[in-house]
Batch of 2 targets.
Target 1
Amino acid sequence: MSTATEAIDSYGGVLDELVAGNWVNPKTGEQHSIPPEAMVIAASLDGAEADLISARHHGKSMVVVCDAFTREALGKRVYEALKPLGGVTEYVWQKPSCSEEGVKALQEATRGTEVLIAVGSGTVNDSVKYATYLDGRDYSVFATSPMNAYSTSTASVSFGGFKKSIPCHGAKGIYYDLGVIAKCPPRLISAAFADVICRTTAQVDWLMSHLLFDTPYSDTPYVLLNYDEGDMISNADQMLSGSVESLAMLTRISAIMGLGTSFTGTTHCGSMAEHMISHYIDMFAGEAHPRTSHGEQVGVATLTMSRLQNMLLNADGPPEMRPTVIPEADLHSKFGSDYATMMIEQTKLKALDRSAADRLNQRFADDWQGFADQLRAVMLPYAQVKTAMDAAHCQTTGEELGLPPGFYSDAVRYARFIRERFSALDLAADSGQLESYAEGSV
Ligand SMILES: [Zn+2]
């Protein structure tokens, strides 16, 4: 690399080893690499942009894609820096929309250029990812907030008003300038924090499913997240004060969360019941949807799940499991037949029959504490999660999200039906404890 990039004050931590392909999981001895060719986290990338990009896309024609906000934040600087490379243009997307139509418009507007350089989070990043996937073009991205979508290979695209997570491809290079990220709207930092603190509830759910039903499980992403999680949580109050160290921790954790799928082949490691509750809100809030972001919803749901998991696993005795009751008529009248049919199908895949319930009860009778201990080892105390979220100015209730009265209770009550993943919601429901818990969730 040239002097400009050598001078970068790197905050990549374990990501630098992952990018180089020489990180070894100390628990398994396995060596791991990741799909992006470059991930750079630095106190500042000012002046290094052209070197970073030409190392990935040498000699290619490029278009820098931003919207009016991200242009001001970073896009203009990136464009000016890349211009001397030649063959570089700029596209300021006036009405960005990560919808079928929006992505088509982006494809048209950038047609004829080999590589797209996204500058921005959410809409710009996901649209560029999906558009270049459809065209078979390459892209790289400069982050403007600390979210995890830069390093995932899925895009959240809306089709006829419905958001879908579409598997596509990842960026060649992902570049995080912490000085820029520090200036993003504080709400985005709080949301990013809320979306990664779900590690604890997702891991408990996923490990529980593995212990009870022998479903596949890998702790590689958790070993990686563990490098920073403790410090990130204890410094949660520093997130919004622009502390480079704290933002670097959040950025690394978000990036690893986004890469989770590349280690495990599934999204389970960072998406269990807390994400189902968020999906429920997106699916059914309709006109009453408060337009809160994914991270904000996941944060509230993480608290709900953390309190439930702590309640179930710290109980003196085991839950008494019964065969799963799927309230088919209720689901039909509440959600209509299309959704109800999907929910019933999904739930049947994890439903306990009499013998499965008996088997779990026997297992719990044999060694409830041993079972609970394995989960408690990866669970954070509820109070710790709540304190950290308060410190990072996250919303903590459905009411704070702006949901209408009663909606959030229903989300807790019904979210388990939308996906076949077995979670603490199922453990509570199939032992008769979910109804009262949902009633108290506002
Ligand atoms: Zn998420």
Target 2
Amino acid sequence: MAKRRVAVVVGARGVIGGNLIDHLEATGEWEIVGLSRRGGVDTDRVRHIAVDLLDEHDAAEKLSELRDVTHIFYAAYQDRPSWAELVAPNVAMLVNTVNAIEPVAAGLEHISLMQGYKVYGAHLGPFKTPARESDPPHMPPEFNVDQQQFLEDRQRGTRWTWSAIRPSVVCGFALGNPMNLALVIAVYATMSKELGVPLRFPGKPGAYTSLIEMTDAGLLAEATVWAATTPERANQAFNINNGDLFRWDEMLPKIAEFFELDVAPPLPMSMDVVMADKEPVWNGLVAKHGLEPTPYSDVSSWAFGDFVFGWDYDVIADGSKARRLGFHRHVETAQMFLDIFRDLRARKIIP
Ligand SMILES: NC(=O)c1ccc[n+]([C@@H]2O[C@H](COP(=O)([O-])OP(=O)(O)OC[C@H]3O[C@@H](n4cnc5c(N)ncnc54)[C@H](OP(=O)(O)O)[C@@H]3O)[C@@H](O)[C@H]2O)c1
């Protein structure tokens, strides 16, 4: 009989956590507990707990029953206006989670930590590329690094192991998330069409032609479980990306074709500013096409669009370590975008 596996997905309503739950559920091999403040709809295999992980007492009280947990998949996130301000809340949520579950879960085998290219300083400026897992750290503070340090220290002398997963920009279905590039592009293109304007790259001039890569949320979920379930992959980090590189000047025409739009030359602008007054346009689209009534705020990660489209330098990391150790799945990024747009249509989020 297969060993019983119980996963706690921390950040169950996130673009990463939500897609990880879908993957774990589809394998049929896991019992799953999802943690978020919002909670969620339970299924046969998934039970949601609404908890505020910033509150150590709430975490201790609500998570003390999780005695059967074998794997913790940590993908919660608290957004803040500056890089330095990200550290305290994001470290506190991880610490409160581990403090609440580790002492009661005698069969705990693994804690998986979701990180990103911020470990390499990708958000700060032109960093060394391709970034490798063995690259030296950059000037602190950096919440991903502090989280990993906490796990490494906490793991010493225990029976469980850890892994750290470093995706590029993650693309998959989710609503109401601060970092959701596929939705930014889908809604921007939809609004461009509604307003009768061609699709223009809104980022910095150099960003149109820099090399970049994406990480499909489904591929990421598979890689995360892969790294968490075999001893040889324990206690180390993995870059996880689709496996192909691209430049926006090549990608944008493919996206425009999907939405039946012309492409015009780039026009650098802040999406956060120019899309701020477009709520009535969105509400009009929802009414006209009978879409799911999704509030404009839930489809508006415009600041994240500005952030990603502002990278006028290459943002790439070497994903070969995971492939050398046996993770071979790859995703064609253009196809990934179109698949996500089709999914958004099928869910009646966009027309
Ligand atoms: N999205 C990307 O493109 C991307 C790329 C690379 C790396 N990453 C990294 O991956 C990690 C996860 O990112 P994400 O984009 O998936 O985040 P996200 O979509 O914002 O999801 C965050 C999750 O954390 C939960 N959460 C937030 N505060 C909480 C609290 N106080 N108590 C309990 N749950 C809480 C949220 O649910 P509630 O709001 O309901 O609480 C949500 O489920 C982050 O470290 C991020 O830096 C993301």
